[in-house]
Amino acid sequence: MKNIPRIFVGENISPGQIMPITRDITHYLTRVMRTNDCLVFGNGYEYAAQITDDGKSLLVGDQTTHADPSNNITLMFAPIKRMDDLLNMATQMGVAKFQPVITARTTAHHINWERMQKIVIEASEQSNRNSVPQILPAKKFSDLDLSQIVFADERAAYGKKIDCVPSDALCVLVGPEGGFSNDEFDALDASGARGISLGKTILRAELAASIAIAKIMG
């Protein structure tokens, strides 16, 4: 079903269901894409759908055979100024959950999370996912269970030896623009959290997140 528009209309979808849509969706399908047909998805599944005669709803048809390419990875990250890029890229890479983390050097505290949700929905529609990643409420670094995570260890750029990339990781943590504080590094080391190297250069946080995800995906 290549080139058929994909629309996220909610998590609970079933064949035969009539789902109300906004004027923006109707305009996008009929005026921009010039079609009455689309694909709708949610909760890991995808269905064929068609605009009803009144243009106000979608009639859900049969489930497609398209399997959800998403994974089970949770990206833990300090909010940054370029949040759009971070969330967009990580969504395209299949991340299941986003966990914002307030670290000692976090500077972006006033995030428009409603806008961020729209970004991950659009990225999910465009990247052929059947699910939209969940954005969890922000947590303080001190409230995290660090023992079960891997983290982007920028100390590798300064010569720290890191043995290998864990193959069983499901949670990856990246720091803010200014990096983790010394106290946070001490907490990570003491907890048994496993660091991964992102190379010999210091990366912007949004790029570091994408590379860290790619590494634990194998």
Protein architecture, described:
By secondary structure, the protein is an alpha/beta fold. The chain folds into 2 domains: 6-63, Hypothetical PUA domain-like, domain 1 (Ribosomal Protein L25, Chain P), CATH 2.40.240; 74-217, 3-Layer(aba) Sandwich (Alpha/beta knot). Helix content is 26%, strand content 23%. It has helices at residues 23-32, 83-92, 113-126, 182-191, 205-217; strands at residues 6-8, 18-20, 37-42, 45-51, 57-63, 74-77, 97-102, 134-135, 139-140, 150-152, 171-174, 194-196. The strands form 2 sheets. Strands 6, 7, 8, 9, 10, 11 and 12 form a 7-stranded parallel beta sheet that branches. A 5-stranded mixed beta sheet has the order 1-3-4-5-2. α2 (83-92) links the parallel β6 (74-77) and β7 (97-102).
Tell me briefly what this model is:
This protein has 218 residues and is of the alpha/beta class.
What does the secondary structure layout of this molecule look like, with pairings?
Layout: E1 6-8, E2 18-20, H1 23-32, E3 37-42, E4 45-51, E5 57-63, E6 74-77, H2 83-92, E7 97-102, H3 113-126, E8 134-135, E9 139-140, E10 150-152, E11 171-174, H4 182-191, E12 194-196, H5 205-217
Parallel strand pairs: 1-3, 6-7, 6-11, 7-8, 7-9, 10-11, 10-12
Antiparallel strand pairs: 2-5, 3-4, 4-5
